Request: fold
Amino acid sequence: MTWSIIAKDDLTGWIGIAVATRFFAVGARVPFIVAGHGGIATQALVNPYYGIDGVALLRDGRHPREIVQLLTSADPGRESRQLHILDHNGQIAAHTGRDCIDWCGHLEGRGFSIAGNMLAGPQVLNETANAFLTHGALPFAQRLIAAMKAGEAAGGDKRGKQSAALLIHGKEEWSELDLRVDDHADPLTELARLEGVSRRHWAVFRQFMPTRDNPAGITDRATIDADIAAALANQT
Reply:
């Protein structure tokens, strides 16, 4: 009842997942990313343990094909599930159970994987992919949203729309961006609005947060406030 894209940004090495559906709070259940290793989207009759256990397997260095086999073989409900995986090396694997509702399927390209079920047709995935490829000049978050909006314009979830989410991780365990639209008449448009809001403060502030290399981060409030003020001035 969902479609999603998992992609790696060539410029930064970040991994991102964008997802949309006619269901409540999709961001709470579908996207999982482990920094430096890859991402997993678990959907259809969602099994959250595909994400929970899958990221542990990604950390162990397992190939996505092996992860799919391990997850689905342990799940008697696998024919009602869909998942896809992209690791940090660009390796991809997917599973669409035979009981997933048409239209359902998977599409992959260099550095991205797209999967969906209960869609208006295969054009949803095709147009999502085409938009991702043609918007390579956009910043990563905006590129993922543009791809999803193209899929929605091609029919999206055939039941309608309700929620959307965008999750991006860089090298740290905490997310570079984690946006969720849980219940909205036009969730991808709202997601795009929130992404724009994030650039006003969060995109500047996140550079001051603690990292593994710099456990203190930057705590000087004058420096933080000055950089945020400068960023806001550049946006006007």
Notes: The first strand starts at residue 2 and ends at 8. The radius of gyration is 18 Å. Residues 221-235 form the longest helix (15 residues). Residues 31 and 95 are 15 Å apart (CA to CA).
